[in-house]
């Protein structure tokens, strides 16, 4: 690894330094190692690419030290012109300046870096994205309505103020149209809120797709806002809206606010309003099919019971239930309802349980456990699986650091890693989806 050079050996709280970017971190920042006064300090700098020589203003008062890019002295071949004009202001995508190929490599290298020593020799396989722009099936934007002006946007790069942008290039064009219209619909509102936009129509065959809106508002929403939303549902880009005005628990509903995506099996998949959905349809199809394929490969007995934890609206369940007896656990009640509806629409059966996966016991006949937790990971589940092993575990993760923590627990419990694969579900950002497939040699027939 190439070392950074310092213009000064003294570490005052803020210094201008020449640095070399040695790696990209899971949070997206570049990392340089700075050695001065006998101490090695990691310096995290946003907006850089691997191998770049830069000048940065570095703040040593925090650990790790934080740098602000002043100049790229020697540019990395991984750097590209950002495909978005708003990248300097908007904080939505942190790797717009990195080529898609380099994003893929960096994600694989991040995932490799979090593997516990027992799995350190594993080869990380990467699945590229077919669409790196216009792919997002949902977005959350912040809204501020003050002094007669409504501002809608992502948080800015260095602030918690929404930054209005003309076009969001990663968003599905249907959602981008609705995002652009939002400030007009909210004209006259006072206060602040969050709006989630998702895809609404079940399938292109049933007509043009439209967006659904979930708005959570603190302040005042005048009747005109509701009238405009009704018009947008009657003939505009919205299929439906749910509005939580103040602390109400039952929202005002206009039209059909149910989000849908194309499921990984090619049929429409109903989602819970305001609930979770994977960020891209194509990426999800690749990810979910591969997770199911690995599940069946590592747990080949068709009679083997499957426990699926963090099941959401049944995105993976509908693939697993085609071939296995599945119990699916999910804590969000409306996601459970959507999962049951998705299974029924396909003539499939599985037991969908509305419960906390982290405290859910693993039933004795379970042969395979499939988990897809939120960013915080599944530490308690990993501990339970280590204490009472099952034949195979397929772990779908959106956060490499918590995946690394949980894989270390599974390694300690005697599991072997059979596959670790990354999926470009969030192109232009440092986020990555990973599937890890493990077997327990004492419990598995797959050797
Ligand atoms: C990353 S999503 C995965 C959903 C689904 N597998 C999919 O592919 O769309 C995580 C899901 O876990 C659910 N969840 C979060 N904490 C939970 C818990 N403690 N117990 C059960 N489900 C939980 C969330 O509601 C969300 O639906």
From TrEMBL:
InterPro entries, alphabetized: MeTrfase_TrmA_AS, NA-bd_OB-fold, SAM-dependent_MTases_sf, Small_mtfrase_dom, TRAM_dom, U5_MeTrfase_fam
Per the UniProt entry, what are the Gene Ontology biological process annotations, in alphabetical order? rRNA base methylation
The residues responsible for catalysis, as annotated, are: 398
Occurrences of domain TRAM (ranges):
10-71
Positions binding S-adenosyl-L-methionine in this chain are 278, 310, 330, 372
Check the record and name the Pfam families matching this protein: MTS (PF05175)
Q: Which UniProt keywords apply?
A: Methyltransferase, S-adenosyl-L-methionine, Transferase
- Example of a GO MF term: rRNA (uridine-C5-)-methyltransferase activity
Stated family: Belongs to the class I-like SAM-binding methyltransferase superfamily. RNA M5U methyltransferase family.
For this entry, the protein name equals: 23S rRNA (Uracil-5-)-methyltransferase RumA
* Taxonomic lineage from the root: Bacteria, Pseudomonadati, Myxococcota, Polyangia, Polyangiales
């Amino acid at each position: 690894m190439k070392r950074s050079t310092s213009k000064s050996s003294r570490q005052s709280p803020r210094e201008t330094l020449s640095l070399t970017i040695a790696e990209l971190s899971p949070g997206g920042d570049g990392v340089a190692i700075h050695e001065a006064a006998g101490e090695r300090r990691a310096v995290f700098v946003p907006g850089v690419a691997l191998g770049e020589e830069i000048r940065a203003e570095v703040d040593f008062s925090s650990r790790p030290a934080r740098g602000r890019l002043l100049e790229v002295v020697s540019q990395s071949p991984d750097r590209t012109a950002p495909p978005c004009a708003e990248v300097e202001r908007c904080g939505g995508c942190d790797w717009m300046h990195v080529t898609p190929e380099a994003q893929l490599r960096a994600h694989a290298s991040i995932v490799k870096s979090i593997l516990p020593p027992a799995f350190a020799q594993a080869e990380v396989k990467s699945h590229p994205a077919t669409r790196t722009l216009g792919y997002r099936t949902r977005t959350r934007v912040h809204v501020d309505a003050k002094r007669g002006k409504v501002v809608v946007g992502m948080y800015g790069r260095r602030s918690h103020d929404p930054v209005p942008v003309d076009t969001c290039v990663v968003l599905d064009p249907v959602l981008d149209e609705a995002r652009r219209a939002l400030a007009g619909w909210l004209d006259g509102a006072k206060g602040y809120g969050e709006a989630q936009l998702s895809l609404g129509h079940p399938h292109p065959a049933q007509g043009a797709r439209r967006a659904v809106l979930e708005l959570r508002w603190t302040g005042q929403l005048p009747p005109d806002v509701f009238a405009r939303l009704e018009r947008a549902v009657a003939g505009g880009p919205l299929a439906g809206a749910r509005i939580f005005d103040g602390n109400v628990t039952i929202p005002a509903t206009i039209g059909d606010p149910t989000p849908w995506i194309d499921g990984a099996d090619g049929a429409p998949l109903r989602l819970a309003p305001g609930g979770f959905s994977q960020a891209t349809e194509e990426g999800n199809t690749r990810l979910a099919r591969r997770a199911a394929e690995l599940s069946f490969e590592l747990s080949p007995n068709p009679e083997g019971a499957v426990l699926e934890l963090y099941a959401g609206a049944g995105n993976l369940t509908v693939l697993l239930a085609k071939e296995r007896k599945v119990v699916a656990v999910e804590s969000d009640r409306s996601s459970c309802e959507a999962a049951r509806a998705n299974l029924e629409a396909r003539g499939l059966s599985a037991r969908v349980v509305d419960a906390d996966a982290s405290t859910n016991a693993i039933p004795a006949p379970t042969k395979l456990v499939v988990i897809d937790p939120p960013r915080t990971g599944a530490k308690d589940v990993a501990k339970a699986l280590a204490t009472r092993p099952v034949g195979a575990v397929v772990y779908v993760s959106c956060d490499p650091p918590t995946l690394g923590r949980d894989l270390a627990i599974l390694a300690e419990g005697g599991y072997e890693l059979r596959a670790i694969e990354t999926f470009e579900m969030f192109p232009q950002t440092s986020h990555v989806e990973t599937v890890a497939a493990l077997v327990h040699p004492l419990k598995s027939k797959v050797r």
